[in-house]
Amino acid sequence: MTDASLYDRTAEPEFGDYVTLLKPRVMSLVVFTAFVGLLVAPVPVHPMIGFAAILFIALGGGASGALNMWYDADIDAAMKRTRKRPIPAGLIAPNEALGLGLALSGIAVVMLWLASNAVAAGLLAFTIFFYVVVYTMWLKRWTPQNIVIGGAAGAFPPMIGWAVATGGVSIESLLMFGLIFMWTPPHFWALALFMKSDYNDAGVPMLTVTHGRDATRRHILIYTILLVPTALALAFTAVAGPVYIATALVLNAMFLLGAVRIWRRDDAACDADSHAVEKKFFRLSLWYLFLHFGALLADGLIARLAPGVF
Amino acid sequence: MSTFDRATHEIHTRRWGRNLGLGIVLVGFVAVVFGLTLAKVSTGANMEAFDHVARPALIPAE
Questions:
Q1: Whole-number pLDDT of residue A208
Q2: Among the four residues A8, A29, A210, A290, which has the most C-beta atoms within 10 Å?
């Protein structure tokens, strides 16, 4: 919870500080996955409407980032990695971030509704609510499963993109959601295994600390085992083509192998090679998500630009 | 005195940057709304909506 008197504005902010408040790096993932969701949908969208929809989805994501920074200013101030964010750095007052976040949330949802439809706008509103209220305010400080819950918020964008085109929810968009949702825990827990984090000092429970590193390794394997059928199920839907099938087969085999390797290790083995296996798994996880959505995009483009090639 | 001048000047530069940024964002927003309007009109979206009076044009053809 933020206390306005703790983070009084001490310097004049630049325009870029307000942009930082919107978490532009998170936004880039939102833009990419929402774009893929929109493009692979069976209903063509006017390019201008598609562009505007992606823009407002990104803006909604940014607004939830600002609201997250407003609420989590105390955590950000306590951790080295986030201490220079605009609020703990004294550049932007907490209430200003709150106002900006609320205003941009409203603008993003209303504009997405006007640009596309109520289902897409409703999903965006729910995503913002879920990330800010359910994740940030409620579960993040309460349970070490916070990563799992937070992953759901990050998994909504392709569903919103799909809804922009089709006006609804379907098995394909649910599976795209499931892909990111199931991918998030192994991705972050692998990072938590080799990164020295000060989350615990800031009062955020992390699985590595609350349940130990062995439990974290087990969790990585369990979520990877759940992730593989989700990714492969997407291959049986209409949005996937040969590129996706080939990509999913190779990447899921590699990912599962990596998770098993992590699961079979102990702390001594990790120290011996400075977490080489965990670091490799983490790098693979970045490629995993990017290439799965990239493959969907490729199949979508092939189907649209050169139908009948496969 | 010179320190004060410089500090004031820096604040003005930052404010100018902020105002310029906001200006660009607002012009961009207008452009997006205009572009959306063109796209909606060209794809044949409904031009009229319910406005508390009977509008025969809104009644779907049988």
A1: 85
A2: A29
